[in-house]
């Protein structure tokens, strides 16, 4: 009781180093790793204690990913790590040498916002904006996960090829991302609208593909001209 | 007025919006804080040797070597100025290092020796606490007590009586962005602070005072703030710590509280113990209203939540009394959290009104309508406008209240019991003096400047609409610059007064500009509404609302879910429907959290809050929130401000918890008078 340590909450009391760490007073241990962030390759020396989140924010200047709790409890730091959503604050940078990362800065195609980004603005799916990068990365992954047929805890039929992203599915799948402003109602609406548009689009694509295929067959029989697909 | 998407929306969805910690300042280093591990005592010695020996550590700052600061009104800002520890978690030292990891690591090696106090920390709020006293005033300047008629005489003589004690726990604001500051001492001796706050003018003035600078030498930059909900309304220790550390090491310093540290360092809603007594005649007309509230504050600063103040004007009753009492404990200093006073106070009053409705056999909506006052019952002032009844009626209609069977605990399907509840909402309509500047350029564009804060409220967008309307141009031609103390002085984003105060100054500046436009461009104009606000006529100005909730309660697990919440509000003219709706729904969502999950638990052995992170302090997650709808009635009020608006940032949380609690009673027959309504309380109660 008579001596203090930093009450960060994430260190054991007593102030000692975990076994195997550098001794007190020793220099930080650094390692050079490669990260491909939003398509750009970075060869970078990192502190072996650093999280991916801190490397993105403090070393690469990509401050779009946010630090809300640094303990994987709020989701503000959600990034796409090798294609899957992950809390950047829980990922040790040195353990992800060679990783491909997408952050909120990489969601748009140049000046063209992604459909989800557009929908977030249209539905006012944020207020202060601090959880928004994590919400958007998470929501982007939710669309991919559902398209890949991943069920959630509330999916009625877990054998379904692609679970329908109805409101209940979205709420369940987005519950790793806290929003204290209380924009959930609008986040769900934005995601649902985007998912419905994507479903309509893929249905239309499928229909077009079928008809294109059938056209192609007819053309193969009677004509020399190829069939273009957009 | 037309609904406008957030003007900074694109920046927020692309990650371009910069928050305090994120400015690319050359040579910035990092600070990490050390907190007291005793709840009461004196710092005997600080041993910084081990920390300073770590490569990359630049300084350890504590009471032993901290630069002396000028005294601030808020003792929490006297960072490292004393050896006294009055609560566990108090800031006692900081490490400054070249990197974030080194600063955090080195903070663990700062050894602090304490001379503990003879007695352990006194941390438990209870009605028998010997230190209970009557404060001179309650937040911000209300009298502690009020009385009218003879309530003690009238109550026992009333045909119907309700007496109940309601308790609310400590709750933490938990804005998503931790309190953060990047402090830069400029070569000319000036101080630049990139800071997360609810009012850059206030931070500038306070920091100038503490560091003995002219206010013009301090610049506070805060264009984007990741939420505050009151906790960033006054400067918190982060901004002092960062500025001090930057001075000590001669480098720019970045500092953010960790989520865990926020629970003791950045304020919270204090717990309350409230006794409400209501008396009514056989028709439900109130004869007596008594509301007494007990709360806690810290040893170093008095903050008393104005919990019983809404009861002073909510309903008619000839006999009435309100009282606030407080006691000082070895606890962190409480402060503002969304609708301080109204939120816990209206939970208690509106729960008691529901109990009275049952005791008198009157529908809860009808009971409230029957007790509508003609004028403010205590001050006697006329209401500038008051449309509580319209909100109740429209809400009842929209929610489908009409065919409600009042009997509790009779709607069961399988494991679920269903119920509905109602409660009133209210929040005062304040306005503060402000200054604004506007310029018209030859390209047809207008620039508005005011040191207002957009903490997620949509202020930037709303002020754009206000300026565009006054200038009679499309909003696309107006750019609003805010969140910078170098802009014309502005009041806080607090007390739901932002739009009213800032908007008034923007309207006046735009009005002053209009006649100049024909004389050639560019043209500019300014405004200062100090005189206008001072000359305001006396009215009781409040917004009102009615909230309805439906709950389902699992009889086996005790879990309460809220399939539906619906609010109708009367808040003057709604300026931007898009952002207004988000504000109402956001407040209701936080109210849902208050009802069912939010509580911070005091460590009664050692002090400080135990569940100090977001895994243990539960705020609503996406799956907790199903269907929340907000509507508003058309309200015209000529006694407010040029826009005719009332504040909307806080009213959404007021009454929400009571609506849910009343619905839980309707579903189960159980009155849980102690928030939050957790499964354990349901199961043991049933």
From TrEMBL, chain B:
Matches recorded under SUPFAM superfamilies: CO dehydrogenase molybdoprotein N-domain-like (SSF54665), Molybdenum cofactor-binding domain (SSF56003)
Coiled-coil ranges from the UniProt annotation: none
SMART domains linked: Ald_Xan_dh_C (SM01008)
Taxonomic superkingdom: Bacteria
UniProtKB keywords: Molybdenum, Oxidoreductase
Every Aldehyde oxidase/xanthine dehydrogenase a/b hammerhead domain range: 14-118
PANTHER family noted in UniProt: ALDEHYDE OXIDASE 1-RELATED (PTHR11908:SF132), XANTHINE DEHYDROGENASE (PTHR11908)
Name used for this protein in its record: Xanthine dehydrogenase family protein molybdopterin-binding subunit
Species in which this protein is naturally found: Actinomadura yumaensis
């Amino acid at each position: 009781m008579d001596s203090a340590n930093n009450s960060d909450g994430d260190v054991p009391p007593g102030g000692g180093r975990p076994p195997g760490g550098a001794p007190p007073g020793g220099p930080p241990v650094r390692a050079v790793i490669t990260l491909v962030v939003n398509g750009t390759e970075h060869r970078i020396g990192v502190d072996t204690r650093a999280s991916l989140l801190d490397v993105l924010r403090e070393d690469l200047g990509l401050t779009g990913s946010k630090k809300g709790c640094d303990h994987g409890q709020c989701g503000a730091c959600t990034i796409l790590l090798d294609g899957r959503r992950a809390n950047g604050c829980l990922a040790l940078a040195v353990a992800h040498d060679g990783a491909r990362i997408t952050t909120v800065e990489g969601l748009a195609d140049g000046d063209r916002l992604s459909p989800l980004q557009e929908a977030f603005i249209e539905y006012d799916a944020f207020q202060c904006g601090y959880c928004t990068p994590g919400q958007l990365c998470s929501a982007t992954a939710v669309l991919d996960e559902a398209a890949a047929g991943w069920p959630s805890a509330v999916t009625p039929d877990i054998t379904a090829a692609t679970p329908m992203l109805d409101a209940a599915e979205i709420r369940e799948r987005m519950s790793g991302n806290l929003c204290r402003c209380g924009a959930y109602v609008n986040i769900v609406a934005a995601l649902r609208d985007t998912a419905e548009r994507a479903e309509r689009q893929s249905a239309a694509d499928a229909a077009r593909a079928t008809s294109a295929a059938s056209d192609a067959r007819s053309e193969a029989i009677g004509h020399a001209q190829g069939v273009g697909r957009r | 007025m037309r609904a406008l998407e957030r003007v900074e929306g694109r920046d927020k969805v692309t990650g371009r919006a910069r928050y305090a910690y994120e400015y690319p300042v050359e040579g910035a280093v990092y600070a990490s804080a050390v907190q007291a591990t005793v709840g009461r005592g004196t710092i005997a010695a600080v041993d910084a040797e081990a920390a300073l020996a770590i490569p990359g550590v630049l300084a350890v700052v504590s009471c032993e070597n901290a630069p002396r600061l000028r005294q601030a009104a808020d003792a929490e800002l006297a960072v490292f100025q004393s050896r006294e520890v009055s609560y566990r978690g108090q800031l006692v030292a900081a490490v400054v290092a070249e990197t974030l990891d080194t600063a955090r690591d080195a903070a663990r090696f700062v050894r602090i020796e304490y001379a503990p106090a003879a007695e352990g920390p006194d941390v438990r709020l209870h009605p028998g606490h010997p230190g209970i006293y009557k404060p001179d005033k309650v937040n911000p300047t209300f009298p502690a007590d009020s009385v009218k008629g003879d309530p003690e005489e009238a109550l026992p003589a009333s045909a119907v009586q309700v007496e109940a004690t309601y308790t609310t726990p400590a709750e933490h604001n938990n804005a998503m962005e931790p309190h953060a500051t990047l402090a830069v001492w400029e070569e000319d001796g000036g101080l630049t602070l990139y800071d997360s706050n609810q009012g850059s003018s206030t931070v500038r003035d306070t920091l100038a005072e503490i560091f003995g600078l002219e206010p013009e030498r301090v610049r506070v930059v805060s264009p984007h703030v990741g939420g505050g909900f009151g906790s960033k309304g006054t400067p918190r220790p982060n901004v002092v710590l960062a500025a001090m550390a930057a001075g000590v090491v001669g480098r720019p310093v970045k500092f953010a509280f960790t989520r865990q540290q926020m629970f003791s360092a950045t304020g919270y809603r204090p717990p309350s113990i409230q006794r409400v007594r209501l008396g009514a005649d056989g028709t439900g007309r109130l004869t007596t209203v008594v509301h007494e509230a007990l709360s806690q504050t810290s040893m170093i600063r008095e903050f008393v939540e104005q919990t019983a103040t809404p009861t002073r004007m909510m309903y008619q009753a000839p006999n009435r009394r309100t009282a606030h009492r407080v006691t000082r404990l070895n606890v962190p200093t409480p402060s503002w959290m969304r609708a301080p006073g109204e939120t816990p106070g209206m939970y208690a009053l509106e729960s008691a009104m529901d109990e009275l409705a049952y005791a008198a056999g009157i529908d809860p909506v009808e009971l409230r309508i029957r007790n509508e006052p003609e004028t403010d019952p205590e001050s006697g002032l006329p209401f500038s406008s008051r449309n509580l009844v319209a909100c109740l009626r429209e809400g009842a209609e929209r929610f489908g209240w009409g065919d409600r069977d009042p009997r509790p605990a009779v709607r069961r399907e399988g494991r679920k019991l269903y119920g509905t509840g109602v409660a009133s909402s209210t929040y005062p309509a304040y306005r503060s003096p402000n200054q604004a500047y506007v310029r018209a350029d030859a390209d047809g564009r207008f620039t508005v400047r005011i040191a207002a804060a957009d903490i997620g409220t949509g202020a930037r967008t709303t002020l754009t609409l206000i300026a565009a309307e006054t200038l009679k141009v499309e909003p696309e031609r107006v750019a609003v610059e805010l969140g910078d103390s170098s802009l014309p002085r502005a009041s806080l984003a607090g007390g739901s007064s932002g739009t009213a105060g800032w908007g008034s100054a923007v309207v006046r500046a735009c009005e002053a500009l209009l006649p100049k436009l024909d004389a050639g461009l560019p043209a500019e104009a300014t405004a200062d509404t100090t005189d206008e606000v001072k000359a305001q006529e006396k009215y009781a100005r409040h917004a009102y609302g009615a909230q309805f909730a439906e709950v389902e309660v699992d009889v086996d697990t005790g879990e309460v879910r809220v399939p539906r919440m619906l609010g109708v509000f009367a808040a003057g003219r709604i300026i931007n429907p898009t952002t207004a709706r988000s504000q109402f729904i956001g407040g209701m969502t936080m109210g849902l959290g208050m009802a069912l999950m939010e509580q911070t638990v005091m460590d009664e052995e050692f002090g400080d809050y135990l569940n100090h992170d977001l895994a243990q302090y539960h705020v609503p997650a996406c799956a907790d929130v199903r269907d929340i709808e907000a509507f508003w009635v058309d309200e015209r009020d000529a006694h407010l401000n040029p826009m005719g608006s009332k504040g909307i940032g806080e009213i959404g949380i007021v009454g929400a918890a009571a609506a849910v609690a009343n619905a839980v009673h309707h579903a189960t027959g159980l009155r849980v008078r102690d928030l939050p309504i957790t499964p354990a309380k349901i199961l043991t109660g049933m």
